[in-house]
Amino acid sequence: MSGGTADQRAQSLSGKREQVSEEREFSRLGALRFARRVVEQQATREPGLIDRWIADEQRREAEERRGQERRPPTPDWLLEVGLNRTTRSTSTAATAGTPVNGLALWPQAEAMRALTDGVPACLLCRPDSELGVLD
Predict the structure, then answer these.
(1) Which domain holds residue 94?
(2) 2, 43, 59, 118: least CB-packed within 10 angstroms?
(3) Of 19, 41, 70, which one is at a domain's C-terminal end?
(4) Model pTM?
(5) Are residues 12 and 58 in the same domain?
(6) Which pLDDT tens digit goes with each residue over 8-26?
């Protein structure tokens, strides 16, 4: 019979179990050491990455502020426009604070021209009085 006596086979099997157990312990120990190395690398790398993200966001905010500062002021006058968004309607001229749908912002000179051309003034905010364009 091959494999020796029963005692020899049991001893061999027991030795293999111990070897597998040791390998398993080594694998767990290796995994823990690997995890520690990963955490150390991230601890040294991540703050730099986050600092770059912070710097990028600060740059974006500064660009946004500069853009807002350079933006021309919003016109104070509204004129209702036609469906093609270029022709003025003959319905209403109003101040920018008036909540009216379908109105587009126009410069003051354009609003005055519209009022003198016969576009009626808004009855609520009376831009004709404010601009000095009275019939």
Answers:
(1) 77-131
(2) 2
(3) 70
(4) 0.36
(5) yes
(6) 776 777 666 666 555 566 6
> Which of residues 46, 70, 94 is at a domain's end?
70
Q: What average pLDDT does this structure show over 68-76? A: 76
At residue 88 the predicted structure's pLDDT band, cuts being 50, 70 and 90, is low
Short-list 99, 84, 4, CA closest to 122: 99
Query: By CB neighbour count within 10 A (0-12 exposed, 13-18 middle, 19+ buried), where does 109 fall?
Result: exposed
If DSSP states are collapsed to H, E and C, what string results for the chain? CCCCCHHHHHHHHHHHHHHHHHHHHHHHHHHHHHHHHHHHHHHHHHHHHHHHHHHHHHHHHHHHHHHHHHCCCCCCEEEEECCCCCCEEEEEEEECCCCCCCEEEECHHHHHHHHHCCCCECCCCCHHHHHCCCC
- Which tokens go with 3? 């494999």
